[in-house]
Design brief:
- With about 200 residues, the chain is an alpha/beta fold.
- The chain has one domain: Glutaredoxin, CATH 3.40.30.
- It is about 45% helix and about 20% strand.
- Helix 4 packs across helix 7.
- The radius of gyration is 22 Å and the shape is globular.
Length: about 200
């Protein structure tokens, strides 16, 4: 009889553990479950007005119509930007395979050289659906300030100068606004998992 009781107790414990695991896996995640950073969404992101690849003036409402990865860089960037932009393009492809619809946006911090045509060609080289944005100095500066990014121009060469800039990628939703940022070291898979989690939580 004691063996039967012991077996029954073991089965009950296993069933409870299995049930708890299933509930944990099946429940809808919250924003807090998905976030790996401690930055408040209210302090980053907001309205902007820029110029798209066709030369049309657009706003954040025109661009952020679904979960969107936003990156500030410049097309003459020799090393960091191409790696980050390629990573973001890979994230879009990974999520597309999972049935998650996201967008990727590249905003130049070098509008003097990055015309609409140039940013269009640049983003097309990484992903056909990536959106390239430029604008006037004032428009770009305002967008950068909204996302609390940093950039500055080196004065070593009037034509082939480099730009120093921050390298975060920002995940923004149409209704919620900014929800998370990603670093250079974050792999495409890690970013894709986080974006999928936030998408499920909204």
């Amino acid at each position: 009889m004691s063996k039967i009781i012991a077996i029954g107790a073991t089965v009950t414990v296993v069933a409870l553990i299995g049930g708890t695991f299933a509930i944990t896996k099946l429940r809808t995640p919250t924003m807090a479950d998905c976030s790996a950073s401690a930055v408040g969404g209210a302090t980053i992101g907001g309205p902007f007005e820029l110029v798209d690849e066709t030369g049309r003036t657009v706003t954040d409402a025109d661009i952020i119509t679904k979960p969107t990865l936003i990156y500030f860089g410049y097309t003459f960037c020799p090393d960091v930007c191409p790696l980050d932009v390629a990573r973001n393009a890979a994230v879009v492809d990974i999520l597309t395979e999972r049935g998650v619809d996201v967008a990727s946006v590249f905003i130049t911090i070098d509008p003097a050289r990055d015309t609409p045509e140039i940013v269009g060609d640049y983003t097309d080289n990484f992903h056909p659906d990536m959106i390239g944005l430029t604008g006037s100095d004032a428009q770009v500066a305002a967008a950068s300030k909204t996302y609390r990014t940093f950039y500055s121009k080196a004065d070593d060469d009037p034509e082939y100068y480099l730009m120093q800039h921050s390298t975060f990628t920002y995940l923004t939703f149409p209704d919620q606004g900014f929800v998370e940022f990603f670093r250079q070291i974050d792999s495409p898979e890690k970013v894709a998992d986080a974006v999928a989690c936030f998408t499920a939580a909204t």
